[in-house]
Amino acid sequence: MKRFIGLTGGIATGKSTVTGMLRELGAHVLDADAIAREVVAKGTPGLAEIAQRFPGVVKGGVLDRKALADRIFGNETERRALNAITHPRIQQAVMERTAALHAQGVDVVVYDAALLIENRLHELMNGVMLVVTTPQVELERLMNRDGLSEAEARARIAAQMPLDEKRKVATWVIDNSGTIEETRAQVKKVWQEASSGG
Fold this sequence. Notes:
With about 200 residues, this protein is α/β, with parallel strands linked by helices. Helix content is about 55%, strand content about 15%. It is globular and about 50 Å long. It starts with a strand and ends with a helix.
């Protein structure tokens, strides 16, 4: 049975750690961030559309991510305009790759996306894995990882959908606040269920 499983989590909850563990177990994982970069790579229609809508953010045929981020940060209208260009292209690429993997005999494809639930993509899935941790661990990891002050880290966390909201639609919750071994044991169990259709 062909299955399409979502993987998401909060900022700094350890989603990339879980992705690595899933790959070790043989999972085929599509990375939303990597695909998002591909759809606006040099010479793509996506990049041309961004250059037209956001003058000055494409330099030498390449997207200046910082310039674009500065333009859309805190500006809902600009952010929506960017999403209207990129999201349909990302979704199409994901669907094409998923179909290609299924055609090659891969039964389960995992789609790793930070905004999976916010963008309502979970509605297309056969299940969702949610990576969580305690608020304190999330805060400390984010401060350490991105070199942020506590206030900056709290603001980033507050800007995302609360984990408790995401829990409501999750099929499996992986708690990544313990040891690597504890997380690995949970990932193994979840993968067995997800890949067996359980």
